[in-house]
Structure formats: structure tokens, C-alpha cells
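Extended Data, panel c. Modelled sequence:
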Amino acid sequence: MDWQHLISDKRLGMEQFHDPRKQTRSDFQRDYDRMIFSSPFRRLQNKTQVFPLPGSIFVHNRLTHSLEVSSVGRSMANEAAIMLRGRHDVDTDRKLYEIGDIVATACLCHDLGNPPFGHSGEKTISTYFSEGPGLLLRDSLTPRQWADMVNFEGNANSFRLLTHQFAGRREGGFAMTYSSLASIVKYPYTSLHAGEKGKFGFFESEDEIYRRVAAELEIPEMEPGRFARHPLVWIMEAADDICYQVMDIEDAHRLRILSTDTVKQLFLPFFDDDSAARRERAMSHLDDPNEQVGYLRSSVIGAMVESCARAFVDNERELLEGTAKGSLINMMEPRLKAAYKGCAEVAAKKIYRASDVVDVEIAGNRIINYLLHTLMEAVLYPDRNFSKLLLEKFPRQYEIREKSLYTRVQAVLDHISGMTDVYALDLFRKLNAHSLPAV
């Protein structure tokens, strides 16, 4: 792969209108602005990140997480671009100047396809098909279509949300640039390659679109159904990893799941002895424990951004060849890598299994399962009386009356994955007659 092809401002669905002339805003900046003002992005404000959404919102939701990931991703990409200057010809250097905007947009988009109620929402949808009522559909779908269902993946759903032409919408979906689209696909292969982790990058319904994007950017197909990653995916992924790990610890501190001393013990090892001592002296002038943790958190993110940018530059050749393994986090210098691992271990033990977090997962599981079963029956048996009522409530852009079973099942998943936590709970209550309009 080469940067001249990997950085393309051609837009999906608008190829015939492509204008290479420079405007006040670049097309990559337009991508970013387009996402900021989009409905799917706004809906993230009411989707759980990890912790329940309290009355006074001071912990992260999907929206604030995505904005922070975008900020970190832009900084990392810009730092890498500066380090790469002079390695390539003048035209390539000019193109590399754009990668900050491309990565910032990809970071905004990376969680758009995730269902409500945090990461457990994906698992709930998958297991509805693998071990729930959805098992009855297995023989009616092709192996690839079935793999799409039992490995339901938010990343693949983000790509669908951005590119699929929903009913009444324009060709190309959001008509994003090819480079922005490729930069969100963490797992550039089909569900038949999902493996034990169940990760993949695009559904069968978007296979042709992803292949078009890959062909335009000259991203190679390493084996049937499995492509190389766009190099900028590595930066987007690292920004996400940094933010969720570090910010989840700060949220846990604010919720008093972790003490101030515990957080200091987790964050100070990111620095050598002299740097750690300077930071401890700086914290001694701060009386508020939240400010102390916020200061440390900022320093930790800065250190990891610099180390990941350096790792990106040091491994540029392997990234462009599609042979790089692991992640930029794993390529950081040993001290930072070990400190990050320590944070991950504490988070797994004390944060992700915290009582309130598990309560949301349990409730979310019941709500999503009920909605899936009820709405799926409506599209499978549309002539039933209750089904007719339910189908009237479906948003018009979802293709619930198509002949293809796969398309109708996807329409249900499109609807549910687009719901906010509040909307899903409200619909659950209404369908169970626990909530009625005022009369």
C-alpha cells in the first residue's frame, strides 16, 4: 500500500461529482462536520459507555467517549505526520497533512453501530441467534448470513450505518470519503473469518461496498474475504484503547469504586522516577482529589499518544505492507506497556464487574432480548394482528417488507441497534403495557 492511494477524498455514492480542487474546508473536514451534526452521532449521548447514566451526568456516555477518542486520535495522527515528514516525496508529505482529520472522523464514527446498554448489547444480540429463539432461523439463511447474526458486531454495523442506502435515503449513505470509511474498519474481513472472538468488519450486505473502497485505496485482499488494514485504523484503535482504559479509571474514581491512592498507584508507573516525582510535587498543590486524578490522567494520555505515534512511525513499513501484528499499545515502550496492562487488570476486576455495571447488563439483556423476539415475530409473521400494529411503529427507512429474510432480520437489528438506552426501555415498557400515553 502507498499513501498516495490510501488518502483519497473521493466520496462513496458521489464519485461522478468528485472535484479535486481545494476548497476552504477539505473533504475530510467535511466528513468530521457531517458526523458532528448527524442524528446517529447525537443518539450516542443517551447510550451507556460502561457505567449507568446517572441523573447528574459526570461519567462517560458513548458521545463523550467518542469526542475524547477523536481528540486523542487527531493528536496522535498529527504527531505521526510530523515525524513522517521528509520520509516521502513532497506530494505525499502534503497528503499526510490530512491524516489528523481522517482519524478524527473515524474516531467519531467508531461506536455509531453499537446497540444500547454498553458492550453487552452486542453479545445479547449474538446470543439471541446462537442460543435463543433466533436459532430457528439458521436453516433459512446462508452460512455467511448466519455468521453475520451469531457474531453481531458493532464495528460492522457502524460501516453499514455509514454506507447503506436505507429506504428514502441517498446512494452511499452518508457519502463519506473512501479514506474515512476504510479507517473505521478494525477487522477488515467477513464474518466467516470472525474466529472465537466474533470480530469482523462488514456484513454480507455491505461486502460489495467494502470491496469498492478497498479497490479504490488499493488495500490488498490477503486471502479470500480477508483484507489488510488501512494503516490509519491502527491510530484510531490506539486512541480508543487509551481513552476507554484511562477514562474508565477516572470515572471509577469519581464513583468511589477506586480510591485516589489506588489511581495514583496505577498512573504514576507510566513515568520514570524523575517524571513521577515532578508530578507528585505538582499534585501536592491540588487539594481536590478529582483534580489530582485529572492532572495525572492528562499526563498519562499525553505519554501514550507520543509513544503510540512513535510506534506508528517506527513500524510504517510493516503497516503499509499489511504484515504488522498486535496493536500500537503493544508496540509502546516497555514501561508504558506494563503500566497500561496494570490498569487493564484492575479495570477487569474492579470496574467491569462492579455491581451497577452488571445491573445495567442484566437489565439490558432482558430488554434487548424481549424487543428482538417481539419485533422479529412481527417481521416474520406480518399478517398477524399484533404484528400489523407493531409494523406501523417501525421507522420508514427500515426494509421490513422485503422478500429476503436476511434483509428483514437486518431491518430489526438496524432498528434496535439505533435505539438509545432510554428509547429501548420506554419501548419495552409500552409493549408490556407498563406505560401508556396520558389520556
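The chain has a mean pLDDT of 90. This feature is highlighted in the accompanying rendering.
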